[in-house]
From TrEMBL:
Known catalytic reactions: L-histidine = trans-urocanate + NH4(+)
Principal EC category: lyase
Compartment list: Cytoplasm
Protein name per Swiss-Prot or TrEMBL: Histidine ammonia-lyase
Length: 522
């Protein structure tokens, strides 16, 4: 994943109970290990809703999740003596994931958002349940959650159940040192008492879109940087391929008033401002009428990705304000069944982003290919090779980009249009949002590498245009790349160079170099 620099002070806790989480809160806790703190106001409202549940627990009338079974067994009344066992059994049976463990940052994001929902006072758990979740996050104890198990409806059931199992002192966890251990041992070493769940609590811990939402928030954070890196790579390609910046003019962008397009066009103008390379062919001797679409239409494509990000960000912000549980304790102390756990809103946004991200990579790969084709690169050597024929240059780097784009196109097939009924047809339409999120994470990683290959290629093309000099912004990035990757010359082992540039993109170093040279990049 892309990792922009961590916040300056990660010792300041993210407070729960003062308002909804922000996307920055999620990234700080999930990725950078910031601590969390439950406010007294949050603990009071949690205790208030718990009183409602405890009153209903003694009611001879059945209440779903309190004195009944779950899912297709919702009509089965559970005697008082068996209800603690009911909650524990729910968690144990639902902790049924399989496949490889998902990333620590995903699990931390999931736990944080479940804790945030508890802090709304709408779930009916006891304050000590919320405190225990906060304690695990602050001790950096991460339950092992598996790749498969969620259908994105009734909550991310299996992933959330694996987390609930850990707070019960069962199952494996990864401790702060990265060691996988039994939860009971890790909790004991951290001084955390395992929970014995009471009525409603097991259900409250697994009914949420927290996993898919956490992955959406992390992807949004990463893509906000990557779409600007895409603008930067495009600017370097336009310049090195002797394209024109005239098509990025502000008045032309305003003719089609999509905000994302205008932002990307502004970036391209700023990055290419006063470019000696572009100035060198801005005269009547230049016979090119129009650049290829991958150059000329970069703001339109990149801008559409930006607008898609804004839509997905709106969905995420709405979801971060939500109190998702079933049944839920309402503000007037009713306990009502509902369908708010259905992941469709998040799943659609995730799938939409996967489509946009694949297309962003696709246009980048097309620009990379133009650099390497002697019939289209305006005088550069074939494949930018040192000695064409003896050397292959960056020929196979483009193959790698093409392979990544092909994978992203497969990942762009929407998960949310699929639905496999479950729970004896009680849960007969599901969102598959967890799967949409897993696909998007892989696609974001692929995009970073595709952009790295374009940057690597465009930087070599800029060097080959010497003695002409690039613009200030593009030169700054080219110079950064030269601190880790040599310029044109005989063939070298390319994989480490691609990895180095990809890491520089992921760390934020590439974007920082551009922003230091050109202020106001979007």
């Amino acid at each position: 994943m892309t990792n922009s620099p961590a916040p300056q002070d990660l010792q300041v806790p993210v407070e729960l109970g003062t308002g909804p989480l922000t996307t920055d809160d999620v990234v700080a806790v999930a990725r950078h290990g910031a601590p969390v703190r439950l406010t007294e106001a949050a603990l009071e409202v949690i205790a208030g809703s718990r009183a409602v549940i405890e009153e209903l627990a003694g009611d001879p009338e059945p209440h779903y999740g309190i004195s009944t079974g779950f899912g297709a067994l919702a009509t089965t009344f559970i005697p008082l003596a068996d209800r603690a066992q009911l909650q524990a059994s729910l968690i144990r049976s639902h902790a049924a994931g399989s496949g490889p463990a998902v990333e620590t940052e995903v699990v931390r994001a999931l736990m944080l958002q479940r804790l945030s929902t508890m802090a709304t006072g709408r779930t009916g758990v006891r304050p000590q349940v919320a405190r225990t979740y906060a304690s695990l996050l602050n001790a950096r104890i991460t339950p092992v959650v598996h790749e498969f198990g969620s259908l994105g409806c009734s909550g991310d059931l299996a992933p959330l159940a694996h987390c609930a199992l850990a707070v019960m002192g069962e199952g494996p966890v990864v401790d702060a040192d990265g060691v996988t251990r039994p939860a009971a041992e890790a909790l004991a070493d951290a001084g955390i008492e395992p929970l014995r769940l009471a009525e409603k609590e097991g259900l409250a811990l697994i009914n949420g879109t927290d996993g898919m939402l956490g992955m959406l928030v992390l992807a949004l954070h990463d893509l906000a940087d990557l779409v600007t890196v895409a603008d930067l790579a495009a600017a370097m390609s336009v310049e090195a391929l002797l394209g024109t910046d005239a098509v990025f003019a502000a008045d032309l962008a305003r003719l089609r008033p999509h905000p994302g397009q205008q932002a990307s066009a502004a970036n391209l103008r700023a990055l290419l401002e006063d470019s000696p390379i572009i100035a060198s062919h801005r005269d009547p001797s230049c016979t090119r009428v129009q650049d290829a679409y991958s150059l000329r239409c970069a703001p339109q494509v990149h801008g559409a990705v930006r607008d898609t990000l804004e839509h997905a960000r709106l969905v995420a912000l709405r979801e971060l304000t939500a109190a998702i549980d079933n049944p839920v304790v309402t503000l007037d102390h009713r306990v009502e069944s509902n369908g708010n756990f259905h992941g469709a809103p998040v799943a659609y946004a995730l799938d939409f982003l996967a489509i946009a991200v694949a297309d962003l990579a696709s246009i980048s790969e097309r620009r990379t290919d133009r650099h390497l084709d002697a019939k289209r690169n305006d005088g550069l050597p074939p494949f930018l090779a040192g000695t064409p024929g003896v050397d292959s240059g960056l020929m196979i780097a483009q193959y790698t980009a093409a392979g990544l784009v092909a994978e992203m196109k497969r990942l762009a097939a929407p998960a949310s249009v699929d639905s496999i009924p479950s729970s004896a047809m009680q849960e007969d339409h599901v969102s598959m949002g967890w799967h949409a999120a897993r696909k998007l994470r892989r696609s974001v990683e692929c995009l970073r590498d595709v952009l790295a290959i374009e940057l690597l290629t465009a930087a070599r093309s800029l060097d080959l245009r010497a003695p002409l000099r690039p613009a200030v912004g593009t030169a700054a990035v080219r110079d950064l790349l030269r601190t880790g990757v040599e310029g044109p010359g005989p063939d070298r082992f390319l994989a480490p160079e691609i990895a180095w540039v990809s890491a520089a993109v992921g760390s934020g170093a590439v974007l920082a170099a551009a922003r230091a040279a050109v202020h106001g990049l979007h």
